[in-house]
Amino acid sequence: MLSLRRNDLVCKQAVELVTDYLEGSLSRRNRRKLEAHLRACPNCAGYLEQIRMTIALAGTVEPEDLTPQARADLTDLYRRWRSE
Amino acid sequence: MDAELLSRLRNGDEESFVLLVARYQQPMLRLARSMVTSPAVAEEAVQDTWMGVVRGVDRFEGRSSLRTWLFRILIYRVRSAGSREPVDISIDTLHGVDPSRFDGQGAWAEPVESWADEIEDRLDANVWSPILRSAIEVLPARQRQIVLLRDVEGLSSAEASDVLGISVGNQRVLLHRGRCRLREVLEAEMRKS
Q: Which of 20-49 (B) contact A at CB < 8 A?
């Protein structure tokens, strides 16, 4: 059983800080507390890794292809707007 | 690429418009649909945005990136078009992570599994794109807007906050909840395999 010092983070608190951590918006003190927790807690370190993978995968979501009809319609509109 | 497209657009180059449409039409529609209930209103706002782009490109000073400008026009058009629409009342969850995942001391009740192997095996974006796309579709609207702008489109926190007219801090809270929710969906998928 871990003995908790008064200032230690518990997992439930640590996971709520991961976005602030990745955004670089934690205070220096909180960043140190979180990093100390992550070094000691493989579960929270794993959670952070999963969030990183989630972000990376979201970045691979491709926009759906436009239908040729939608493209043609917008090109027609473009010509009209330009000629007005 | 933005700068080149912009100067071609200014010169009335149709091909540059078609390229922009191919790249941004669907992302803009997705964002618009997260803000109004009527798909027709969303489509009209996107079309109005393109008209604003074509007519306003000479006045665009390039202080923001082209896509930030696009999204900002869009948000403005959607908000004007949708002002008669009912306000989205979907409830944002309070926590990023479901509190029932923790024991009485606040530690994980079950160990967090490693994804490394599953991701390696199924790294193909074709596998994950549809899963993530539908997971994003069901996020509460404000979380969805931020996740689309930040993680799918890759805007910075300053750009995304600017586009949506919210504080960087608020933006971060919504982003956190949205990402946590997407992670849960991926976790459920991993467990299936």
A: 21-27, 47
CATH code of the domain in which A40 resides: 1.10.10.1320
- Name which of B185, B152, B189, B150 is nearest B171 in CA terms: B150
**CA B154 – CA B144 distance, rounded (Å):** 14
B131 and B176 both lie in a single domain: yes
Picking from B12, B108, B129, the nearest residue to A61 by CB comes out as B129
Q: Answer for the pair B150, B157: CB distance below 8 angstroms, yes or no.
A: yes
Chain A residue with CA closest to B136: the answer is A58
Residue A38 lies in a domain: yes
Nearest CA in chain A to B95: A16
Contact B172 A47 (CB under 8 A): no
Domain that holds residue B6: 2-84
For B129, name the nearest residue in chain A, comparing CA atoms only: A61
Q: Tell me, yes or no, whether B61 and B145 share the same domain.
A: no
pLDDT in tens, A19-49: 999 999 999 999 999 999 999 999 999 999 9
Residues in chain B with CB shorter than 8 Å from the CB of A66 are 21-22, 25-26
Show the low-confidence residues of chain B (pLDDT under 70): 1, 82-94, 117-125, 193
Residues within 8 A of A (CB atoms), B 54-73 only:
54-55
Same domain, B73 and B115: no
pTM of the model: 0.85
Q: How far is CA B66 from CA A60, B44, B72, B181, in A?
A: 21, 21, 10, 30
ipTM value, please give it: 0.84
B94 belongs to a structural domain: no
B110 and B168 fall within a common domain: yes
Domain final position from B52, B84, B116: B84
A69-75 mean pLDDT: 87
Show the tokens assigned to B183.
């992670």
